[in-house]
Amino acid sequence: MDFFLCVIGMVMIVEGLPYFAFPDRMKEMMNRVLEMPDQTLRKFGFILMIAGLFLAYIGRGYFR
Fold first, then answer.
1. Which residues does 33 contact at the CB level (< 8 Å), separation at least 6?
2. What is residue 64's predicted lDDT score, i.e. its pLDDT?
3. Do residues 19 and 26 make contact, with C-beta atoms less than 8 angstroms apart?
4. pLDDT of the chain along its 64 residues, tens only?
5. Distance of CA 14 to CAs 11, 37, 60, 62, Å?
């Protein structure tokens, strides 16, 4: 559970950094995202999930 909380905390830091550093650019990006078709967002989300799964797999294999 400690590891899980650490990972969630790190994700929150990485996710929050662009909003803190570049708030105006993030607003522009959100407007672009709102204009994207749902299918494009689904594909992008799927690719990110696969990449995250791959990174978790590699991380667990190499650092154990």
1. 41
2. 61
3. yes
4. 788 898 899 999 999 999 999 999 999 999 999 999 999 999 999 999 999 899 888 877 766 6
5. 5, 26, 20, 23
Structure-block tokens of residue 36: 């994207």
For residue 25 the two structure tokens come to: 């650019």
Residue bearing tokens 């950094």:
17
Q: Which residues contact 26 (CB under 8 A, 6 or more apart)?
A: 18, 19
For residues 9 and 20, what is the distance between their CA atoms, to the nearest angstrom?
A: 16
Please, are residues 26 and 18 in contact by the beta-carbon 8 Å criterion?
Answer: yes
23 residue type, one letter: P
